[in-house]
Amino acid sequence: MEGTGLRDSKRELKRIEWSIVRRIIIILQSSPRMKKTHLAMKSGLGYDKCMLYLAWMDMLDLIRREKDEEGFQVISLSESGMNLYRTQFTDGAAALLSST
What we know:
It is built from 5 helices and 3 strands. It has helices at 18-30, 36-43, 47-59, 79-89, 93-99; strands at residues 34-35, 63-67, 73-77. It has a 3-stranded antiparallel β-sheet. The radius of gyration is 13 Å and the shape is globular.
């Protein structure tokens, strides 16, 4: 996947699973400013795979990366990510959140 920005050392996303993108967006909408490790655990993904999805979502401007008051990187939804949540993912958000 040369030139897509999805390379992460030896690993790369071969295809995007929208169910995973949806899960991450719903979790970030309910818990803004989440640390990367906590997001990976809450979404049921391994850390490396979660980072690949976050890189892809960052490329599409669906998330923001910021530093918290302790200097740790935290992830939150961008305005585009919030719009995607409102227009596409609100129907099943409650069911997904109750299962996590």
